[in-house]
UniProtKB/TrEMBL annotation:
This is Guanine deaminase. Keywords: Hydrolase, Metal-binding, Zinc. Its cofactor is Zn(2+). Coiled coil: none annotated. One of its GO terms (biological process) is guanine catabolic process. Its EC number is 3.5.4.3. GO terms for molecular function: guanine deaminase activity; zinc ion binding. Belongs to the metallo-dependent hydrolases superfamily. ATZ/TRZ family. InterPro entries: Amidohydro-rel, Guanine_deaminase, Metal-dep_hydrolase_composite, Metal_Hydrolase, Metallo-dep_hydrolases. It comes from the Bacteria. Residues 68-429 form the Amidohydrolase-related domain.
Length: 441
């Protein structure tokens, strides 16, 4: 990275703690500056004193009156499902068989995977998402394609090769041995290169044999610091299938526990229909539950019980789950989270939602010391948001009197159109078209 210093000026917002727990968690500076050097934040504070100290050769991108937040984090999505979104009329198991598995079968072709990786990374940055936990396909080529693109843009990204050795078309299956060996080779090739991290990725219990889960447990024990990502308790048909496939197990979660896959930095997508015992197991082992509201609504999977998950001390992430999910935008994802919780007699404040999209998701990924806050030493990954991006937003914002109200309307009505610019490692990696550039002073 260049040693060039950069600075952004605007309305700074971030969270130093969880606003669901601490009243002083939100940090807001009306006219603030973030200074970055070598991809890392070196200074955050009021604009006036920082401007006095900054030497003349530092370029300040002036984004006033827009908001500047830590880049959004999306802890669960599928790279090969960008052309699956909006597939009609099926619940999970039928949706996988009818739409998703046939589409993923194409990704053994490096050209297919590369084209999709470029699209996905562009789209994430357009939505202000700077870090994601990404499922590729069974094909190692799909992981090479994604990481190549993420590395080219200097992004902090997490991804892995899906392991699956049964209950899917042959073109998508590996074996206990090849799944292990291919994952091992990809870890050696990609993990820790730039800001990239490898995630051990057994798709879910129904598509792995006991032999594959055993091999996956060995891999996990050989790499105790790596992320693990999989799916858990999304759909009643899926849960019944797991009961059939693993008759020895008292519940779905125990299948993963038995194989050493429930631990810190293990990311469990969905977690909709867990028993008290299962929640306790996840909480005791410090695993993460990933809430994917647009997917849960689209596939009719169920309503995430945030209060119960938090009550068990489980780390919570909020994710798009593209392409069961229907929006790449974390703003839209938060809007749907609010509605899911409303259906459950629960609520989500604007601070809670914006915390989840940033520092909360960083915590769910075990990356709370690197990303998700505007603080010295953190990665200089940021999103610039325009609260008045559309006529409807501008009209509604005229009545917004407080910051929490502005933020709540922004997440309810905003989307990629609200993202003015995205920065990763201190560089501008996306700029909204059709509008004036930020003035450089
Ligand atoms: N469970 C196993 N695979 C998938 C997937 O691709 N999407 C969703 N939503 N659930 C899954
Ligand atoms: Zn998923």
């Amino acid at each position: 990275l260049t040693s060039r210093k950069t600075a952004l000026r605007g309305r700074l917002l971030w969270f130093d703690a969880d606003p669901a727990v601490s009243a002083k968690a939100a940090r807001f500076i009306e006219d603030g500056i973030v200074v970055a050097e070598n991809g890392v934040i070196t200074e955050v504070g009021e604009a006036a004193p920082i401007l006095k100290r900054l030497s003349g050769d530092v370029v300040v991108s002036d984004h006033r009156p827009h908001l500047i937040l830590p880049g959004f984090i999306d802890p669960h999505l599928h790279m090969p499902q960008t052309q699956v979104i909006g597939s009609y009329g099926a619940e999970l198991m039928e949706w996988l068989a009818k739409y998703t598995f046939p589409e993923e079968s194409r990704y053994g072709d490096p050209a297919v995977a590369q084209e999709a990786a470029v699209f996905l990374v562009d789209e994430l940055l357009r939505c202000g998402t700077t870090t994601a936990a990404v499922y590729c396909t069974t094909h190692p080529e799909s992981v090479d394609a994604f990481f190549t693109e993420a590395e080219r843009r200097h992004l902090r990204m997490i991804a892995g090769k899906v392991m699956m050795d049964r209950n899917a078309p042959p073109a998508l299956l590996d074996t206990a041995e090849t799944g292990y060996a291919q994952s091992k080779a990809l870890i050696a090739k990609w993990h820790g290169r730039g800001r990239l991290a490898y995630a051990i990725s057994p798709r879910f219990a129904p598509t792995s044999s006991e032999a594959q889960l055993t091999a996956t447990g060995v891999l996990a024990s050989e790499h105790p610091d790596l992320h693990i990502q999989t799916h858990l308790s999304e759909n009643h048909g899926e849960i019944a299938f797991v009961r059939e496939l693993f008759p020895w197990s008292k519940d779905y979660t125990e299948v993963y526990e038995r194989h050493g896959l429930v631990r810190e930095k293990a990311l469990f997508g969905h977690c909709l229909h867990l028993s008290e015992r299962e929640r306790t197991a996840l909480g005791d082992r410090d695993a993460s539950a990933i809430f994917c509201p647009t997917s849960n609504l689209f596939l009719g999977s169920g309503l995430f019980d945030l209060a119960a998950i938090r009550g068990a001390g489980i780390r919570v992430g909020l994710a798009t789950d593209i392409g069961g999910g229907t929006s790449y935008s974390m703003l839209q994802t938060a809007a749907e989270a609010y509605k899911v919780l409303a259906m459950n007699g629960q609520t989500l404040t604007a601070y809670d939602a914006f915390h989840m999209m940033t520092a909360g998701n960083a915590h769910a990924l075990g990356l709370e010391e690197r990303i998700g806050r505007l603080a010295s030493g953190f990665d200089a990954d940021m999103v610039v948001l325009d609260s008045g991006a559309t006529p409807a937003l501008r009209r509604r914002m005229a009545r917004a009197e407080t910051l929490p109200e502005e933020l709540f309307v922004l997440m309810t009505m905003g989307d990629d159109r609200s993202v003015v610019a995205t920065y990763a490692a201190g560089r501008r990696v996306h700029e909204r078209q059709g509008l004036a550039s930020p003035s450089i002073s």
